[in-house]
Amino acid sequence: MNPRVEEMHFPDLDIPIRIDRVSPVLPAGPIPVGHGDTLYLSNLDDMVGVRVFTPTVYFYRPLCDPKPVTKTLEDALARVLVPYYPFSGRLRECGNGKLEVFFEPNQGAVLVEAHSEMSLGSLGDLIVPNPDWKALIYSFPSEEHYKVIDMPLLIAQVTQFSCGGLSLGLRMCHCLCDGIGAMQFLNAWATTAREGFVSLSPNPCWDREFFRARDPVRVEYPHLEFSRIDDESTLTRSLWETKPTQKCFRVTREYQAFVKSLAGDSLSTTFDAMAAHIWRSWVRALDVKPRDYELRLTFAVNARQKLKNPPLREGFYGNALGVACATSSVIGLLNGPLADTARLVREARLAVSEEYLRSTIDYIEVDKPKKLEFGGKLTITQWTRFSLYESADFGWGRPIYAGPIDLTPTPQVCVFLPEGREDCDGTMLVCICLPKSACNKFKELLYNF
């Protein structure tokens, strides 16, 4: 076993939760919209892949100063909803199925107060995401899967445990913010709760018109990330026909550097090399057939620094993501060296230019994808650059764990997470879904190449 990679285990749990209160949280002061007003969402905010809520959970140790936690969070949220007023609206469809934010009286975010007779210690080591934490994130009774229309755009559940510890479970609508934008909002909320007054750095700006489609539209790239592909491989069936297992691996900085060295190219980043290694290992473990089937690896690229004409304003918290797409046949991944796969990842990443992003916007304008395409695809989501832990100190310290809980509803997604320890020195967690029959093979490939 490679000592630089460690499989992390989590316990099976049944967390009894009692919901004490479900309350709307309205902006604490005037906002620049009224009854019947709307806000434009860009095509990047309206992509089918972001018409979802992103669930995350944050765990906190027992408080030395047991101040009223829920009241503190509620008051701070109400204050922050003034500058971040779009989170107090709702989504609806307008022309051609496009989404917009609309405002009516008494909408607001939702805050849920809950408690559990369990202690945090009963949950085991809070190190890696555990699907059994789902009780800590609120869903409405009989809520439809993937529903975003006419839903609160921010839903927060505060659960207090018998030991005095607590969790904050969040559902934020991806249409309003990408990961960087979510961290900006979370930091504003946490800082306001900690300091007792609204603290914004930077000031939020909406600016979604920045990403309007051109007139006339110019689709200048093939955009394989959105292609509708008949899934004639065994890949998707093997993941969706049986309930997959969520696996997590602790990957040290030294191991990441080792994988990068095996990629053999100074132009490839650590992400390029690790994404290539995970993709190849996953496909090999799944024994995908036929061997000539064309596979896709997709991942989001933050385009903020690529936008020059003009640049985005600081404080923009919407979706500024391009979707990179690397392609390879199964046989190419099985037989080719890691360096070749890393090069494919690097080229896909670098291809997301300002021109590519504008072409993406125009593509969605003329041929909006209506559903998620899973054919032959693995999607890697990189959370290691998000300030998950630094942005979430509401006055009771850094969270023990911060991040997602359950990948199994979309088992073709792999997440790279930062480790929660303050001295982790670049160690990350790789979380991925596999059929039980492929778990041992994937672990062997991850450890031993």
From TrEMBL:
Gene Ontology molecular-function annotations: acyltransferase activity, transferring groups other than amino-acyl groups
Source taxon at top rank: Eukaryota
Record-linked Gene3D superfamilies: Chloramphenicol acetyltransferase-like domain (3.30.559.10)
Any Pfam family matching the protein: Transferase
InterPro entries per UniProt: CAT-like_dom_sf, Plant_Fungal_Acyltransferase
Transmembrane portions of the chain: none
Similarity section: Belongs to the plant acyltransferase family.
Identification of the protein by name: Omega-hydroxypalmitate O-feruloyl transferase
Organism: Cuscuta australis
